[in-house]
Amino acid sequence: MPAELTFAAPRRAKPPRHLADLSPDERRTVVTELGEKPFRAKQLAQHYFGHLESDTANMTDLPAGARERLGEALLPTLLTPVRHITCDNGMTRKTLWRAFDGVLFESVLMRYPDRVTLCVSSQAGCGMNCPFCATGQNGLTRNLSTGEIVDQIVAVARDLARGEVAGGPGRIGNIVFMGMGEPLANYKKVLESVRRITDPVPGGLGISQRGVTVSTVGLVPAIDKLIAERLQVRLAVSLHAPDDELRDELVPVNNRWKVAEVLDAAWRYAGTTGRRVSIEYALIKDVNDQAWRADMLGELLAGHLVHVNLIPLNPTPGSKWTASRPEDEREFVRRLQAHGVSVTIRDTRGQEIDGACGQLAAAEL
């Protein structure tokens, strides 16, 4: 990350080294140092990424005497599920994970008739301090490693493939970095995890780059770094207000990069990648849902390669913030459409299972 981005997590012990942390060349080096043939690295990766298998005891094509040693070196247990909770007839499943050092974070699996989406965390907690966000109120504990990010996906994909999620066996087609944390504040690990997610098996999981969405509150230098990667992932900007006065309060990082700067970076991303930018906008009753703000937002976005994702706020216990009235929500949509801006209202899943990221971890703590 550029020097001016100082969202460092507190120093803590590092997670164990994992296969997903390493490039194919690095995996071969580790395997060779263990006294095994280099091709064993590809076999391990084929099991992990291709067959979603993490237990070397089940990898019968590996020498029996080497399985435990290879497992300890490259496939240590990173995450332990604390609990799964479900709603929507089991089609939405939230998992609370505990890492090696006890930190907690969450992922959410959402099954739809035409797709399966997994929302993953990139940090334990978040340092952006947005006052309406449960994660932001818990503060930042630490960044997740590449392996911890990827292992959320592999573990959930394994359950899905084995039919352990309502709806029968299935496959994840979409990954959204919209769980706990600010992804671009953990830039290196998030980028590495995107590579592992999208590289073909056995290098990675083989999910299309176009099925991956990386969200940000607007870290402009990091957006420009992402542009230079020339990936085809979607960029989602959590805007939440069209004017600097309100956004300074709702998204404190706006004090460093104002609305105009954030949107200019978004248009650079769209212009370079050809991908439509998603503007995330949590509708908060009597705070940012006024018709005039809808008009202001429409004027800022009109004519650009953009889609607005309106999110009825999932309130957190004890918070003064709550979701907009249905009539105000409808008027907001109407005003944006009048400016020619594409807009949808996000399906509000998970409210009865503490759906807003951070609520389940906070309750456990």
Automatic annotation (TrEMBL):
<dbReference type="InterPro" id="IPR040072">
    <property type="entry name" value="Methyltransferase_A"/>
</dbReference>
<dbReference type="Pfam" id="PF21016">
    <property type="entry name" value="RlmN_N"/>
</dbReference>
<dbReference type="GO" id="GO:0070040">
    <property type="term" value="F:rRNA (adenine(2503)-C2-)-methyltransferase activity"/>
</dbReference>
<keyword id="KW-0489">Methyltransferase</keyword>
<keyword id="KW-0004">4Fe-4S</keyword>
<dbReference type="GO" id="GO:0019843">
    <property type="term" value="F:rRNA binding"/>
</dbReference>
<dbReference type="Pfam" id="PF04055">
    <property type="entry name" value="Radical_SAM"/>
</dbReference>
<dbReference type="InterPro" id="IPR048641">
    <property type="entry name" value="RlmN_N"/>
</dbReference>
<dbReference type="InterPro" id="IPR027492">
    <property type="entry name" value="RNA_MTrfase_RlmN"/>
</dbReference>
<dbReference type="InterPro" id="IPR004383">
    <property type="entry name" value="rRNA_lsu_MTrfase_RlmN/Cfr"/>
</dbReference>
<keyword id="KW-0411">Iron-sulfur</keyword>
<dbReference type="InterPro" id="IPR007197">
    <property type="entry name" value="rSAM"/>
</dbReference>
<dbReference type="GO" id="GO:0051539">
    <property type="term" value="F:4 iron, 4 sulfur cluster binding"/>
</dbReference>
<comment type="function">
    <text>Specifically methylates position 2 of adenine 2503 in 23S rRNA and position 2 of adenine 37 in tRNAs.</text>
</comment>
<feature type="binding site">
    <location>
        <begin position="181"/>
        <end position="182"/>
    </location>
    <ligand>
        <name>S-adenosyl-L-methionine</name>
    </ligand>
</feature>
<feature type="domain" description="Radical SAM core">
    <location>
        <begin position="112"/>
        <end position="352"/>
    </location>
</feature>
<keyword id="KW-1015">Disulfide bond</keyword>
<feature type="binding site">
    <location>
        <position position="130"/>
    </location>
    <ligand>
        <name>[4Fe-4S] cluster</name>
    </ligand>
</feature>
<dbReference type="GO" id="GO:0070475">
    <property type="term" value="P:rRNA base methylation"/>
</dbReference>
<feature type="region of interest" description="Disordered">
    <location>
        <begin position="1"/>
        <end position="21"/>
    </location>
</feature>
<dbReference type="InterPro" id="IPR013785">
    <property type="entry name" value="Aldolase_TIM"/>
</dbReference>
<feature type="binding site">
    <location>
        <position position="126"/>
    </location>
    <ligand>
        <name>[4Fe-4S] cluster</name>
    </ligand>
</feature>
<feature type="binding site">
    <location>
        <begin position="238"/>
        <end position="240"/>
    </location>
    <ligand>
        <name>S-adenosyl-L-methionine</name>
    </ligand>
</feature>
<dbReference type="GO" id="GO:0005737">
    <property type="term" value="C:cytoplasm"/>
</dbReference>
<feature type="binding site">
    <location>
        <position position="215"/>
    </location>
    <ligand>
        <name>S-adenosyl-L-methionine</name>
    </ligand>
</feature>
<feature type="binding site">
    <location>
        <position position="133"/>
    </location>
    <ligand>
        <name>[4Fe-4S] cluster</name>
    </ligand>
</feature>
<feature type="active site" description="Proton acceptor">
    <location>
        <position position="106"/>
    </location>
</feature>
<dbReference type="GO" id="GO:0002935">
    <property type="term" value="F:tRNA (adenine(37)-C2)-methyltransferase activity"/>
</dbReference>
<comment type="similarity">
    <text>Belongs to the radical SAM superfamily. RlmN family.</text>
</comment>
<feature type="binding site">
    <location>
        <position position="314"/>
    </location>
    <ligand>
        <name>S-adenosyl-L-methionine</name>
    </ligand>
</feature>
<protein>
    <recommendedName>
        <fullName>Probable dual-specificity RNA methyltransferase RlmN</fullName>
        <ecNumber>2.1.1.192</ecNumber>
    </recommendedName>
</protein>
<keyword id="KW-0408">Iron</keyword>
<feature type="active site" description="S-methylcysteine intermediate">
    <location>
        <position position="357"/>
    </location>
</feature>
<dbReference type="InterPro" id="IPR058240">
    <property type="entry name" value="rSAM_sf"/>
</dbReference>
<dbReference type="GO" id="GO:0046872">
    <property type="term" value="F:metal ion binding"/>
</dbReference>
<keyword id="KW-0808">Transferase</keyword>
<dbReference type="InterPro" id="IPR006638">
    <property type="entry name" value="Elp3/MiaA/NifB-like_rSAM"/>
</dbReference>
<dbReference type="GO" id="GO:0000049">
    <property type="term" value="F:tRNA binding"/>
</dbReference>
<keyword id="KW-0963">Cytoplasm</keyword>
<dbReference type="GO" id="GO:0030488">
    <property type="term" value="P:tRNA methylation"/>
</dbReference>
<keyword id="KW-0819">tRNA processing</keyword>
<keyword id="KW-0949">S-adenosyl-L-methionine</keyword>
